[in-house]
Amino acid sequence: MLSFITRRLVATLAVLLVASFVVYMLTANSGDPLEALRTQNDPASVAKRATLTEKLDLDTPPFFRYFKWLGGAASCVIGQCNLGVSVIRGDEPVANALGNAMQSTLSLVILATVLSILFGVAIGMTTALRQYSGYDYTVTFAAFIFYSLPIFWVAVLLKEFGAIRFNEFLGDPSIPWWIALTVGCVLALVVQAVVGGHLRLRIRTAGISFALTSGILILLDITQWLKSPSIGIIGVALMGIGVGALMLFITSNLTKRTLQFSVGATVIAVVAMWFPLQFVWFYFNNPLAIVVVALLLAGLGVVAGFFLGGDDRTEAMRVAAITGALSTAPLVLDQMFMRWGDYVQIIPLRSGVISTIGANTPVLANSDDTWMRMLDSSTHLILPTAALMIISVAGYTRYTRATLLEVLNQDYVRTARAKGLPETTVIMRHAFRNTLIPIATIVAFDFGAVIGGAIITERVFAWQGMGALFNQGLREVDVNLVMGVFLVTGVAAVVFNILADLAYSALDPRIRITEA
Amino acid sequence: MARKKISAPNTEQIALSELTIEQRQIEGLSLSTVVRRRFFQHKAAVTSLIVLGIIVVLAFTSVGTIIGGTGRLAADTDSGEIILDGLRISGWWPFDWYKNYPITTPGGLPSWEHPFGQDTLGKDIFARVMRGIQQSLTVVTLIGILATVLGVVIGAVAGFIRGWLDNLLMRMTDAIIIIPGLILGAVLGRTIGGNAISLGILLGLVSWTGLARLVRGEFLALREREFVDAARVAGASNFRIIFRHILPNSIGIVVVNATLLMSAAILTETALSFLGFGITAPDISLGQIISQYNEAFKTRPWLFWWPGFFIVVVALCINFIGDGLRDAFDPRQRRMPKLTSLSRQIRELTGGGR
Fold first, then answer.
1. Residue A339 DSSP label
2. What was the ipTM of the complex prediction?
3. Which residues does chain B have within 8 Å of residue A138's beta carbon, measured at their own beta carbons?
4. Contact A387, A160 (CB under 8 A)
5. Which band of pLDDT confidence, cut at 50, 70 and 90, is reported for residue B17?
6. Which of A79, A456, B11, B172 sits between 20 and 30 A of A167, alpha carbons compared?
7. C-alpha distances in Å from residue A27, one per residue of A33, A90, B279
């Protein structure tokens, strides 16, 4: 295992080295950093040019300058990065500039990638299972359209309709009854198309989802939830049940008594922990708290699974532990929403809650309150993430659909069906896992595209992330800055590739990476 | 298209009945005929082909085009009018994309005279959008041709010859793939961007990587097949085996992926121009128009809607054509035919309906 990773790492690093050389040479030759000074008539410009030439080491040919740069970059291994200084940013060390930019961009890119995979795989699977239905055709067509959308165009549209109009709506939130009913109708149509089955079942599903959606919307309106949203213990309980049910469904254990009990007990434990955890969130005001609590709740799940698991003890422990860990999300969300009232007061009056500028509100950037900062980042992340997702999701959907259809035609799926396994088990246990194998490959590919997308999205939403650094660096031919951005994206791509390889071997027992 | 009617003796009909409907449909036809026939059955693809054709004709005939020259703006020495450097072929549209005209409607609202409206300087948006489409299509075509040729040749050589050459070529491919496409494109565009032809050629020189990998995989599998041995025994040279024997067998994968590459190319080009690293002023691209009028969304939405609309339509058409081609070459994932047409086909084939 370790030797495989090392070998993979060495091979990819060699590739990265060649790539960095190519980018360095291309960038160094892409323009003239002294251009602005050359055209000036100012007598001082000659002296300025001389200093800049010296600072940028322009008398050395780019070929040798690359190795100087490489020497500095190589010292990153021992923890002292020397990526040179960025002249256009007032001689700021590139490593410094990257540090701040990296955080916002990578959080955006990773969030968008993870959400795209989740949504894309889910939608793709449902379309494959309802092949040739109206739902399938609609989604396929929509995927085609999304696939053809230029991201900068989508981003501008989102900015207008997703933020400015939505913020106007949030300023005075009221949902008229007819809108609630229409939304309910639309959702009912979609849900019955996804669930499928015979007419009676479809009508029943449609009825239930219509009543639920419209009911919830009307309830939100009556209680003025949108004006002062909160989750509270009830919200945490509802979301916990949802997470538990989803986990049971995914692992095709929905009907197993032992697992129901284990997961149910875990959810109850999470809800019971809600009050004591308030103190943890308050006194341990640090992102690390999330990890600690997730581990704690997972531990509760393990205990529940151990005592209630019966014959399926291992399985129960695993499923309950994952349920517990995932239930941290509603708890954290709850903390964030608790600060909603204060947040609305703090942010600039005109901008509205869904922000369209920057990665965070300047006033809150150095706030002591972790949850407030998280809330702030989330409202800033929503739109860029949505813009990036629209395009990625389409790709994953189409890919998952094709792969699952192929898998469902395999002999082992027929065998599984023939021995009388329920359809959920066939899909989730036998087909799903094999569908994920090829998807692991395209995740690594898609990552580069998402980074490119992030560069554009950041520009539309005025983020001071790596996209801004790259744009600035390339425009003024600041090679060090461009190389810094490339280094981060390159390393991220390498990491994703290796993760994909590991996922491969975890999913497919035929691939043994120790022997590769 | 004459469908082959079956009115053979009994024994042959029995033999035929063991073939599937699909097999009987294509029996005795050449691959290209089969593919063409299947492609024309794909309604979305055919519609897309027609729409794309109309857009191409519209874009190139309406405002005409310009050939050669630096493409820079200059003032005509006699009349003082603004002209472009190069051989200008004019079209039937009365306005030019680089000239300012008096604004006819308040705020430049779309009117009969300027159907897509005008910007603050009075430029005709229809002419600008048409010129933008021309540029985007030029870039896409160049990328498509270059990347396909390079991808096929590199992939074929790597897959067929194998050994150190394969290793070298594939490591080269890896090195290019690891650079995010937009970063590479932007650096190249910043170097010699500015006009559609140089941008298209540069991007084409780096876009072949995905196709090369696919072609290599295909060649690795096909080179072990019997027909390659047969060709070699018959004395065919490597060159002949690669291009006359193996390549036609992997033409499906090449054609489909070339199409998909082109639909990605139009999005890349517009994105680069949006960032200012692609086609730059005084020339126009759709992405550049959007970038230029980005802030005017509230006051002049038409400056923003039209260029975006055409990017989407062109990309969508190319994607649908690619889908149609995939279905034509690889019928495994074909859409279900309608039940009525299926039963009609069965009747026709079995001769029962006559």
1. T
2. 0.84
3. none
4. no
5. low
6. A456
7. 11, 20, 18
